[in-house]
């Protein structure tokens, strides 16, 4: 019998079998809770509000546990990078900052779990936030450069296709290849654009941690919305094709 095509349940099982899948579901749940606390339960001291606050806090600790060893992926990415020399330093900033962030998050988890002295918590949290911001800045620049280069390449391919059509050239095999390349470039650019939006959203949260909630973008509703935007994009990126 032919193999049955994967349905929503199959894809959900595959998604939740991954560490990133669980992490993103927890991220959505956490920022939905934050949004409720900033709107429906704002200034509320009801039992529901207290429980929701405790629930949101526990999810934050749980997500840090899921990042155990995740910094190794950034080290591996740098080790296997084949980027051009003028872009490699940006990859060092992006992957290095993200790797330091994930490593420090392990220490934060151990502090919150009671294994390390809590007097180090503020210092580690600050270093973690700065490392996170550094990684986002590197990724934002890399994504912007990729999008610009992709748009230029897409325009060149589209011009080639329009020229062939204008002159009624019978080059169907070549035209088919050019159209496939154009679609592939557009797909990659869209995903890179989503990654850019995600990094901008997450950098807002990191900036809030750096400034201890004193910045211009520190409104709880905006922060919760930024977290939800980032989480939704992460789910889209990690969802089985």
Automatic annotation (TrEMBL):
It is a multi-pass membrane protein. InterPro entries: PEX11. Belongs to the peroxin-11 family. It is found in: Peroxisome membrane. One of its GO terms (biological process) is regulation of peroxisome size. This is Peroxisomal biogenesis factor 11. It comes from Apatococcus lobatus. The keyword GTP-binding does not apply. GO terms for molecular function: identical protein binding. Keywords: Membrane, Peroxisome, Peroxisome biogenesis. GO terms for cellular component: peroxisomal membrane. Pfam families: PEX11.
